[in-house]
Amino acid sequence: MEMLQRAVTRADAIVRDIQDGIITFTERGLIASLNPCAEKLFGYSMDELVGRPVQMLFIGPDGQTINFGTLTHTTDSIN
Predict the structure, then answer these.
(1) Mean pLDDT by 10 residues, the chain (79 residues)
(2) Using an 8 Å Cβ cutoff, are 59 and 67 in contact?
(3) How far is CA 11 from CA 4, 6, 7, in A?
(4) Which of 65, 45, 42 minimizes the C-alpha distance to 55?
(5) Is the pTM of this model over 0.85?
């Protein structure tokens, strides 16, 4: 169990300290978490965004949400 906790702690530190914005969201497209760089990039705190639709971060110049189509994921291997 201690090895698992160390791995989780290390992964958390990497996500927190990386210089890229990372946003995670649910299958329904609701924001689950974001790292400090994403907070700076988008100008919102995690508290302001968790539970809100990820699409709200992608508003076009005309004020309309940019349509990315259906967000999907796969477990297939990429060769």
Answers:
(1) 90 83 91 93 93 86 67 47
(2) no
(3) 11, 9, 6
(4) 65
(5) no
